[in-house]
Amino acid sequence: MGEAPAFLVDDLQDGPLNGLELNNGTCKTTTVVGEKTYVTVGADDGTLSIDVQIFDRSLGEWVHPTVLGTKPLSCNGHSAVLFENRILVLKKGSKSDDQIWFLEVDTEYVRQQRKKLGTEVVAWSKGVIGNAEKPIVISGPSGVGKGTLISMLMKEFPSMFGFSVSHTTRAPRNMEKDGVHYHFTEKSVMEKEIKSGKFLEFASVHGNLYGTSVEAVEVVADAGKRCILDIDVQGARSVRASSLEAIFIFVCPPSMEELEKRLRDRGTETEEQILKRLRNAQAEIEQGKSSNIFDFILYNDNLEECYDRLKKLLGLDGFVATSPKSAPREINLPTDHSVSKIDDKIIISCISSGLDKESKNS
Ligand SMILES: Nc1nc2c(ncn2[C@@H]2O[C@H](COP(=O)(O)OP(=O)(O)O)[C@@H](O)[C@H]2O)c(=O)[nH]1
Ligand SMILES: Nc1ncnc2c1ncn2[C@@H]1O[C@H](COP(=O)(O)OP(=O)(O)O)[C@@H](O)[C@H]1O
């Protein structure tokens, strides 16, 4: 809670001015949601992120929210319009994969975070230009075969699926590459990034921190691919509660003996780590089977049969992988545009950049 930013008081009294470029090289938008006015302010030099302030009319004061998610860098101005329980923010003159953003102001995720943190909360998420299907969350105990099944899927359908590369504080295994299998991170760095709202979800698993950054999922969606997340049950529970709509699959071993055999034969863990993973497996399997998190439970007994069942539930049985899907269509918003909403349609009004500069095209 605090003082009103000096340059805004008059504008708020005059009503919202969308995308107004202020004299000092900044651009702001105001969006009214119930008793609150959300103000986004961006400098036009592209070095700072768009700032969010809230004026709460019921309290008669300014509130500085905790801002979660990756913040968009400002550019040559931006415009905003309320779209259900989030504000659609369109950046002017930026690249097509960076034009469309959402500021979640009253989604289920934001409401939960508000309760958890005890502060006002907003969350940024980047709009994606692809039209990929719902992400797939795959969970299961260590050694059950999640990685193997995911690799088979990605190998058979390379243009269809993309892997969400998690962050972890565990040490890399021999064949693991930073940025491909995981983003290997220092604990202190990851803890700081968790506080700054970088992660969609995170959890402590087998004594290490693991987390899915908002960006890891956006990168895949921006490429027009369906995102696959390999995360534990706690992470799956958090994603269920988040604004990311996904399909949740739990992979079960045929028996604890077989799980132990697979873990030992993989040869990537020390004896101590194997025992820890086996101890945790029992509880994970119970939660996986009994909680309401998962849409499907897959038994990974015979690998080929399990893979066939996985493809079936993803609607891929009999699907012939052909040439890569065409890249997502580029939407090129001109530098000069404004945005408004009529019924359930978003109208982007563009000021032509051709000869007739004054003519307005919608
Ligand atoms: N919550 C969460 N769990 C993760 C994430 N990435 C990996 N995990 C889980 O962490 C556990 C350990 O992963 P890892 O160390 O690679 O071992 P593995 O499962 O035996 O291959 C597995 O259950 C993964 O599904 C993440 O980003 N978030
Ligand atoms: N259905 C299966 N039958 C036998 N071995 C399997 C099967 N699925 C996976 N494996 C093997 O079990 C080990 C663990 O699999 P992995 O995919 O690394 O598990 P996770 O990613 O769940 O920890 C690997 O050596 C893999 O080759």
UniProtKB/TrEMBL annotation:
Class of enzymatic activity (EC top level): transferase
Keyword hit for GTP-binding: no
Domain of life of the native organism: Eukaryota
GO terms of molecular function: ATP binding; GMP kinase activity
UniProt cross-references to SMART domains, sorted A to Z: GuKc
Catalytic activity, reaction form: GMP + ATP = GDP + ADP
Pfam families linked to this entry: Guanylate_kin
Keyword entries, A-Z: ATP-binding, Kinase, Nucleotide-binding, Transferase
InterPro entries per record: Gal_Oxase/kelch_b-propeller, GK/Ca_channel_bsu, Guanylate_kin-like_dom, Guanylate_kinase, Guanylate_kinase_CS, Kelch-typ_b-propeller, P-loop_NTPase
Enzyme Commission number(s) of this protein: 2.7.4.8
Residues covered by the Guanylate kinase-like domain: 133-315
Lyase as UniProt keyword: no
Family, per entry: Belongs to the guanylate kinase family.
Name of the protein in question: Guanylate kinase 1
